[in-house]
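sry for the spam today, last one i promise. struct tokens for design, 301 residues
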């Protein structure tokens, strides 16, 4: 958004059709004075750039660029809230839920992620706006046609209003998001045996095992364990199968260590800390004054 504001050009002192003819007449044909006036007015209006050549209006592609920025915000918001909705279904996270909030008028036990659903609904609308702006720009005949007027009065203000609501909702969600670590741990541990097969395979190979033979054994055990989970609804017993197979004797005493979740996270914890300190904190610091303004908006669900 900041980059788009910085790059936003002003139409400038161009006159009715963009030729600057009236200003050239005013300055008795002095082109340098016309150019100086154009530059000075642009500066006084707070713009760094000016459109070099225009018709009656600035190019409507600018509207497309602006709405594309708003669309980008909406896309990120949709992705975030889409994931929250999926994780809520798995009971791993929950968005804020007030004591008197009704999750479903029919099913009293439900805790629908209504804020995230609202974000996705509004974001879907905003993501469609650049297409309308693209069509407006493409359909400007010659210098300009007035079919750009009515639609711009809709998609420009509504795009900003919708994104404003989306950001308020995101702030509300982030402020009260609840994470359930034990549910997450249970799900990770149920899938970890499958994820750890490559580590187990490599450890056995390091200790002299035949890779092809070991790979086939793990493949068979994995398919059988998966069938038990899906077909019988029982826990994942892949580790028990490997522990009983003499082909994997080299790692039998080390299986608990090889399925430790910490082995699979890489630099994820450090990456998060670095992202917050290097990317997020500077933005917060640069916008302290705005963040200090008390919001008058409320979120009702």
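last one done:
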């Amino acid at each position: 958004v900041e980059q788009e504001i910085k790059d936003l050009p002003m139409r400038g002192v161009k006159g009715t059709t963009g030729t600057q003819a009236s200003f050239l007449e005013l300055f008795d044909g002095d082109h340098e004075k016309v150019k100086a006036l154009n530059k000075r007015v642009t500066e006084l209006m707070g713009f760094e750039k000016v459109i070099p050549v225009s018709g009656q209006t600035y190019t409507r592609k600018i509207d497309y660029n602006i709405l594309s920025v708003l669309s980008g915000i909406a896309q990120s918001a949709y992705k975030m809230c889409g994931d929250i909705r999926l994780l809520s279904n798995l009971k791993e996270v929950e968005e804020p839920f007030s004591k008197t909030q009704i999750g479903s008028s029919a099913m009293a036990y439900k805790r629908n992620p209504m804020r995230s659903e609202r974000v996705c609904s509004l974001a879907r609308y905003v993501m469609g706006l650049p297409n309308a702006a693209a069509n407006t720009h493409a359909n400007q005949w010659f210098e300009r046609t007035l079919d750009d007027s009515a639609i711009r009065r809709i998609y420009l203000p509504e795009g900003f209003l919708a994104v404003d609501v989306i950001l308020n909702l995101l702030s509300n969600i982030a402020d009260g998001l609840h994470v359930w670590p034990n549910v997450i741990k249970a799900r990770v541990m149920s899938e970890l045996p499958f994820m750890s097969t490559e580590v187990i395979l490599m450890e056995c190979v390091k200790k002299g095992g035949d890779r092809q033979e070991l790979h086939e054994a793990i493949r068979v055990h994995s398919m059988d364990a998966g069938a038990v989970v899906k077909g019988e609804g029982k826990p994942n017993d892949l580790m028990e199968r490997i522990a009983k197979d003499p082909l994997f004797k080299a790692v039998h005493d080390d299986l608990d260590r090889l399925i430790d979740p910490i082995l699979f996270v890489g630099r994820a914890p450090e990456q998060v800390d670095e992202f917050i300190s290097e990317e997020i904190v500077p933005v917060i610091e640069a916008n302290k004054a705005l963040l200090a303004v008390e919001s008058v908006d409320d979120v009702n669900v």
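Residues 61-89 form the longest helix (29 residues). ok im logging off now
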